[in-house]
Amino acid sequence: MPVHCTWSPKIASLPLNRKLLGQRCDMLLHLLGLARAEVSVVFLDDAEMAAYNEKYRKQQGPTNVLSFPAVSHDDGFVVPENELGDVLISVDTARREAVGQNTSLHHRLTELIIHGMLHLAGYDHERSEAEAMRMWKEENLLLQKLQQPRSVAMPYLAINVDHVATIRQARGGSEPDPVLAASLCELAGADGIVVHLREDRRHIQDRDVLLLRQTVKTRLNLEMANVPEIVDIALEVMPDMITLVPEKRKELTTEGGLDVLANAKKVGKTIAKMRKAGIPVSLFIDPDAAQVQAALDVSATFVELHTGRYCEARTMEEQDREFRLIEQTAELAYESGLRVNAGHGLDYRNVHPIAALPFIEELSIGHAVISRAVLVGLENAVREMLAAVRTI
Known about the structure:
Radius of gyration: 25 Å
Largest sheet: 8 strands, parallel, barrel
Number of helices: 16
Oligomer: single chain
Distance between the termini: 23 Å
Number of strands: 12
CATH superfamily of the largest domain: Aldolase class I
CATH class of the largest domain: Alpha Beta
CATH architecture of the largest domain: Alpha-Beta Barrel
Strand content: 15-25%
Number of domains: 2
């Protein structure tokens, strides 16, 4: 039976993904072999938790989690067979603990849900050191299992057509046309088109951006360096959104995220101009908590997490480490009030785990799709990537 989750009105303003937390509660019951049990999980603020803590434990102040196993009373009340009990969680306390542990609120809440439900299932870390170690191991195992991809993947897929223009520029002619390629991508089901208008115009040209603005039916995302010339073009063209990226003349492709901390003043001015024009701004950043905070401070709407290190990892351990960093940063960004996209280096083999992260709205993919299109055609390449992104 599904876990009954209750949310106090006192925490209504917090950016909680209630659906995700509810799904994790339900999955936990299955993992514990208690799928038929009835459990209530209540999310409270500190004041409400403090009241329960004083009433039932005779202790002052809030705590992070309380568990109340369902037990029969001496007055003859018999607990229904499938009723397991209640778990109370203070979101305020969990939030402070998450900050102290440099983790996300959803991660900490998941840990507390596991801890509380294990108590309902009969675990007790205060019973003995051996029991505490047993419970700790079980908590870590369950946390790993719960942080699996979402059951239904719903990220948008935006196709970057820069490399169609790269081929065109190699011969200096007019074919292949990235504007036509963008139309084919949309026909195949792409949710958006991305182009990067570089200062050196190595691939996408001004003409391309102007025509794309007139022809793109989904969403046009203009990637750009934060330089006056390109800012003026963006304000003239009015794309659906812009993504500010770092840009080096000699790089083959974007090599890392934008250092928002070091460029906050300039970035903030550009965001203010775009906001006045009604253009949302995304900042392409490395998965780093400090950069997330800097993006929030300059009033960005989105961050796009750089997935390059994840894609280039040479070992499974390194890839898993980079994946967990992206996962945690995505949650932190979401909890801060930012919307989250991701991209760079994603291909048909490595996109699946990133696509399944519940806080990422859109993936931007270019090189892998255009490379695949050489062999199977552009529309087929887009459809294959859509299948990889949305089949979880």
